[in-house]
Design a protein that fits this description.
Elements lengths: L2 E4 L2 E4 L6 E3 L11 E6 L7 E5 L6 E5 L19 E8 L8 E2 L5 E4 L4 E4 L11 E2 L4
Parallel strand pairs: 3-10
Antiparallel strand pairs: 1-2, 3-4, 4-5, 5-6, 6-7, 7-8, 7-9, 8-11, 9-10
Length: about 130
Amino acid sequence: MPTITIKENEHSYDESEIITFAEGLIGLPQMRRAVLIEMDEFEPFCWLASVDKDNTRFIVVNPHELFAGYEPLLFHTPSNPLTLTIVKISSDWTRTTVNLRAPIVIDAKTKMGAQHILTGSDYQFAESLPQN
């Protein structure tokens, strides 16, 4: 079983878990294949880690778990989508932000993913985390 090393910890994954991005991610067109690695100690956050390039990974979160009512208007939405947003961690946790304006949408059945920029949207590229 293949593994990915993140912060000196090895994480196994199955080939069937690989998400394919036909066009890569915005700013990273070479990131075509990745897997989600759960962060048990920081749930609901996960790693989206490239299986082809070491050290290419992002912290992501399902925005529906943090932002009630988040409903990006997308064209060609899969029937069973998994929506993720990239998280920008700050050393001061209260300044951590989430990119709600450019969600990553994954078809849970086919494992095909794409990142979309929501034009004409009020969602922000750097939305503060809700303060609960």
